[in-house]
Write the structure tokens for this entry.
Amino acid sequence: MLRLPASPVFDRLNALLSDQRGNVAVTMAFLLPPLIGGLGLGFEVANWYLITRAMQNAADSAAIAAASNGTSSYAAEAKAVAAQYGYIDGTNNVTVTASNTAPCPGAGNTCYSVTITSEVSLFLAQVIGYKGNATVNGAPGQSLNAAAVATQSSKQVPLCLLALGTSGAQDIVTNGNPKANMTGCNVMANTSARCNGGNLNAPYGLAHNTDSGCGVIQVSGVPIVTDPYASLASNIPANAINSCGGVFPQEPAKHGDPPLPSANQWSAWPPPGAYSLGNNVYVACGDQQLTGNVSVNAPAGAVLIVENGQLDTNGFTLSTDAGSGLTLVFSGTNGGSYVHAPTGGGTLDFAAPTSGDWSGVAIYQDPNLTTGVNISAAGNSPTWDITGLVYLPHAALTLSGAVNKSGAGQACFVMVMDSITINGTGDVVAGDTPANCAKAGLNMPYATIPSRGQLVS
């Protein structure tokens, strides 16, 4: 220890130098600022961690919501979900951003991402000189981030109404349809759908472009559904039209036109003028007209191919017996005045065959036909009580009546057309399910729609 020369002054200095009382206080005075700063930083880091975890939960939920939405409003959906967690975009230094072009883990840039950024003020961390990485209200702050990426999963939805849109027209249109109740019947348009006056009560209203008002749940941007039944045209025998020898009688269009031959007017099965191609397949040439109620007894299923002609029910009923099936095929050539469709004021009350080449098919217009295929009063002239598929790929259809199942068939009705207009009295009776249609021998068409999103990072 340093000793100073003896004197009263130096004696006091020597005593002060040798006195150790208060050393701890002095040491603590030097250590306290960094200690407080360290503890403060620890507390702030812990708080940042808790905030970031809450932000991550919000980002995860928002990304799943965006992917589940899958439409042009995905970003609004993501921000709404984040707001439920207290992170409101543009408020309290919070920013929420969403994207539908995020890289996916496998490949592609079709995933949905959500990033939440929150800038918080610094407190005790400043004691040790930490200035943060952001500015909050003019003061040092810390920017916290949380991000999540989700992919859009999908599910298959069965359809009982599919508008192919081959002509480019708006596929599904309704006009004042308070009575239309398609419960259990999902509808799909390969272009657009617009329902006025009601949503049809269809569980799903789907459209490749925009669905406006159709369906309880409305989904736009759905992938186009490829025509699932066009290939059935190969079941039409190549020699069917040749059986007619170029003769196709037509119903009188004006006074003085010749009447239909008696062979084209029938009240029993099979039609008297039809050509048999074997295996219960018949070809009828030109217009056919019922002159009485006709019941088809064909347990193995019968096929009537009408070449260049209509089937005029003429106020009568064409039906199938219990356990029997019938397929009406309209084929022939384009052009002229030929009508390739059912007409008349009677009733079609029949079920499709449940097996064979035409299993599940009730009415089939040859997809090669593009003229004379429109139907202006479907379900009304004639009444449709049909089990199975009605396939009209190039027809503009107006549904004006109620479509019911046949009296001797399952509750399965599937209609495929180019476009459809449903009027106020148009209706499809509920009951379509894949199980019912399987019993009727028909595989229903399906659309692929977005389902709940799944987190991928």
Remarks:
- The chain has a mean pLDDT of 89.
